[in-house]
Amino acid sequence: MLKIAVMVSGGGTNLQAIIDAISTHALKNVAIDCVISNKADAYALKRAEDNGIDSVCIRPRDYPDKDAYGRYLASFLKERGTDLVVLAGFLVVLPECFIDEFENRIINIHPSLIPSFCGDGFYGLKVHEAALARGVKVTGATVHYVDSGCDTGPIILQKAVYVEEGDTPETLQKRVMQQAEWIILPQAIQMIADRREK
Ligand code: GRF
To answer: How far is the CA of 108 from the centre of ligand 1 (A)?
Structure first.
């Protein structure tokens, strides 16, 4: 059984996609051990609670600096025996001390086809605003391993989504979530779970 911790900052629709995939057995041999948010009011925490999943808010401001925050997070997750850390809309840049503790065991979902529209400052709606401003006809989502860079780790899965006439950042974001993110994130977790079983 792959024990995962999901780190969130917002609405938690990607977390919900993982919860639903597990409950429908589309996603096998995976268990969400806990959900961590940096924001106490993240709706994702309610999704966890509603599904009987341990959840906790661990805020950077409660630690003297980013490294102390990263060290605490790493110790918390190691204590719980976490196998894989899933960043699902987690908006805090994790320090190297955390990345090093979970080398090749942290994945992230990004709402574009990396290397387009990624890196510093590209998150949430800003990604889709940039895609529309550039006039791309196709965008999508990427699941990648997290390394010490920003959206620079090895790519695991990608899924393309057409931009439609009249799209706004909001309509495009929704389509990318529905047609790409919520599909490839559980798929990527399954790939990792299957590899681990071998
Ligand atoms: C998603 O668009 C994801 O790609 C990005 O942040 C957003 C999180 O949405 N990393 P949600 O909290 O999963 O609904």
So the answer is: 10
95 lines ligand 1 (CB under 6 A): no
Q: What is the pLDDT along the chain (198 residues), one digit of tens a residue?
A: 999 999 999 999 999 999 999 999 999 999 999 999 999 999 999 999 999 999 999 999 999 999 999 999 999 999 999 999 999 999 999 999 999 999 999 999 999 999 999 999 999 999 999 999 999 999 999 999 999 999 999 999 999 999 999 999 999 999 999 999 999 999 999 999 999 766
| Residues assigned a catalytic role | 110
Q: Of ligand 1's atoms, which has the minimum distance to the CA of residue 8?
A: 12
Which residue's CA is minimally distant from atom 1 of ligand 1? 89
2-197: what fold? Rossmann fold (3.40.50)
- Domain layout of the chain by residue ranges: 2-197
Does any ligand 1 atom lie closer than 6 A to the CB of residue 60?
Answer: no
* Cα 143 to Cα 165: distance, rounded to the nearest angstrom: 26
Q: Specify the residue with its C-alpha closest to ligand 1, atom 9.
A: 89
